[in-house]
Automatic annotation (TrEMBL), chain A:
InterPro entries: DUF2089, DUF2089_Zn_ribbon
Annotated organism of origin: Belliella calami
Superkingdom to which the source organism belongs: Bacteria
Domain DUF2089: 9-37, 42-85
UniProt-recorded name of the protein: DUF2089 domain-containing protein
UniProtKB/TrEMBL annotation, chain B:
The name this protein goes by in its record: Yip1 domain-containing protein
Source organism: Belliella calami
Keywords, in A-Z order: Membrane, Transmembrane, Transmembrane helix
Segments traversing the membrane: 9-34, 61-78, 138-161, 173-195
Length: 92, 199
């Protein structure tokens, strides 16, 4: 089963942080308080878009033809994502 | 399907929409010449106007060009995205697609008769006209259809601007209204000059 990483607290809707990390191989557990990286705080569809964009070598034209969308639509999606990433970085 | 009809620009923009749009504008001009339909600005339609074929073509291309250049200037001022002129001009050309259908409406004699009937009945202008209830119904139906196509075209123009300029909310609505009003004012003057010089 592919589990979804929770990024928002189901109780108060605040952003979640990492409290512990565990190594399956040697059973070591590290405890602390770590922020989630910006990319992991994106929605699944947004993260898929980023991955597709990288796979298309950063070409919006290739991206547009792959997604069957127009160039400005894909550019707008990217611009919205840039805006969201900027906002997430400011919130840290 | 509804999304494709009201906002095809999610799927088509750039050079593809420009070519399709320019062909549509040209086709509209030719049909409008034969049906004696005149588009004096971006949304107005006048029936029964005799224009030369050159005026008809020039008028329709000027309508598209003026509104596109104004939308482009507005997008350059307001948008934070890297907008492309090709997208603005292409999507605005394709947005004029509904007027291709409107240009056919005046082929019906009912509209002309109904116009003359209204002029005689309410303004005592022209000659008395005999018009059947069926012809009246057809004329009212055709007027309603042209209104629907006009609303459709404005909706397409709005979505074309929204997609190609990446604007949202109040900024988008206000800038769209400003460009529409300003382009109508500019085109009113340009149309007069065009009619005087080409027709």
């Amino acid at each position: 089963m592919n589990k979804k990483l929770p990024i928002i607290c189901p109780s108060c809707s605040s952003g979640l942080k990492v409290k512990s990390l565990h190594c399956d191989s040697c059973e070591t557990t590290i405890t602390g308080q770590f922020n989630l990286p910006v990319l992991l705080r994106l929605e699944k569809t947004e993260l898929d878009f980023v991955l597709d964009f990288i796979r298309c070598s950063g070409s919006l034209k290739i991206m547009a033809s792959k997604l069957n969308l127009s160039y400005p639509t894909v550019r707008n999606m990217l611009d919205d994502l840039i805006y969201k990433i900027d906002k997430l970085e400011q919130d840290v | 399907m509804f999304k494709k009809l009201t906002n095809p620009f999610i799927y088509v923009a750039g050079s593809k929409s420009l070519v399709l749009g320019l062909l549509t504008i040209f086709g509209t001009s030719i049909v409008a010449y034969f049906s004696k339909t005149y588009f004096p600005d971006i949304i107005s339609v006048k029936m029964g106007v005799d224009l030369s074929i050159l005026s008809s073509i020039a008028q329709n291309f000027i309508n598209w060009f003026v509104v596109s250049i104004l939308f482009h200037l507005m997008a350059m001022i307001l948008s934070k995205s890297k907008i492309r002129m090709l997208d603005i001009f292409g999507t605005q050309a394709l947005a004029r697609f509904p007027y291709f259908f409107v240009s056919f409406i005046n082929f019906s004699e009912s509209l002309d008769l109904f116009g003359k009937y209204l002029l005689w009945t309410f303004m005592s202008y022209g000659e008395p006209i005999e018009i059947t209830i069926i012809q009246k119904s057809i004329a009212v139906f055709l007027l309603f259809i042209s209104l629907v196509f006009t609303i459709w075209m404005v909706m397409l123009m709005y979505n074309a601007f929204k997609v190609s300029a990446n604007l949202k909310g109040t900024k988008l609505i206000l800038s769209f209204i400003i460009v529409m009003i300003f382009s109508m004012v500019v085109l009113t003057y340009l149309s007069k000059i065009l009619i005087l010089n080409i027709n």
